[in-house]
Design brief:
alpha/beta; 2 domains; five-stranded mixed sheet; three-stranded antiparallel sheet; 41% helix; Nucleotidyltransferase, domain 5; 16% strand
């Protein structure tokens, strides 16, 4: 019948294919030691290299640099990952919603507690599960005090808003600036509108410039050295318990060199004792509603 109609078989049986042609891109990358890591970890490594002073690598040099660090990866994949995350040389951040306010001053210089805050997410490896959990921390720059932390397998915009809400309710102050990177949780319209409604100015660091959020990066270095490298967590529950104990120790007992060998909580208290001001703290609310990381997880 096709011959009678003068129609070729290939034309008759042709069907349009949906989706992108070719194989789906890989989600993991091999290392020289035989292990495998997610592409998210590769992007973190790329950002770290780009954050080194004077480094201006494109995807070719970045590929060579990653291979020197033990990554088995080709230039095509490095290009794809850098392109997807806006890390290519001379690339610009795409803003889908209203314009973001980027960092204007290199270093935060608060004169009192609850003036300048910073937040970021740290990967914590859970050995018993063979995967990484995420730890969100909000830090007061003046005192270096941990105002709040939250751990789970994923950190979404709803959890960011919840944690910030707990902090704002406990410390209701005005003229606060919050600095963070361009993570999807922080860029989310829900979080930005919530901060705007509470008169909190949110500022974003530039791409591949972790030094612009130096205080939270320094804290993560302390956390990595004092906790993460010392423990092998069998479950996220165990990790949550350790992080709760760490928060109390860090705030109340660990002396800080930049604070003239005082603890963050002591620095916080001294300021209000000298100025005669009292930070509004609803202790009854804090006592009755204090949730551990693990108790919080059941609500998300």
């Amino acid at each position: 019948m096709l011959r009678w109609c003068s129609v070729g078989r290939s034309s008759f049986y042709y069907r349009n294919k949906t989706g992108k042609a070719g194989r789906k891109p890989s989600t993991h990358t091999n290392l020289a030691d035989g292990s495998t890591i997610s592409n998210t970890s590769v992007v973190i490594a790329v950002k770290f290299i780009l954050g080194i002073e004077f480094v201006d690598y494109g995807y070719r040099k970045m590929s060579a640099g990653l291979r020197l660090e033990g990554f088995i990866i080709n230039e095509k994949k490095v290009y794809r990952l850098m392109s997807e995350h806006g890390l290519l040389y001379n690339s610009k951040i795409g803003v889908k919603s209203e314009n973001r306010k980027f960092v204007q001053y290199y270093t935060q210089k608060p004169e009192a507690p609850m003036q300048e805050l910073c937040m970021d997410i740290k990967y914590v490896h859970i050995h018993g599960s063979g995967r990484n959990a995420l730890l969100l921390t909000v830090l007061d720059v003046y005192s270096r005090k941990i105002l709040g932390q939250l751990m789970w397998w994923r950190i979404r915009k709803e959890q960011v808003k919840w944690l910030l809400g707990q902090i704002i309710e406990k410390h209701p102050v005005k003229a606060v600036t919050l600095r963070n990177d361009n993570g999807s949780q922080f860029v989310a319209h829900l979080v930005r509108e919530y901060l705007k409604d509470n008169n909190i100015a949110q500022e974003f660091t530039h791409v591949a410039t972790p030094e612009e959020n130096a205080f939270i990066e320094a804290y993560h270095s302390i956390l990595d050295r004092a906790v993460i490298q010392r423990y092998q967590f069998e479950s996220i529950y165990d990790a949550g318990l350790v992080m709760n104990r760490w928060k109390d120790f860090y705030n109340d007992r660990r002396i800080h060199g930049r604070l003239k060998n005082k603890t963050p909580q002591k620095t916080w208290d001294i300021y209000f004792e000298k100025t005669g001001n009292k930070m509004i703290q609803n202790k009854e609310f804090h006592t009755q509603n204090r949730l551990t990381n693990i108790e919080l997880l059941s609500s998300f």
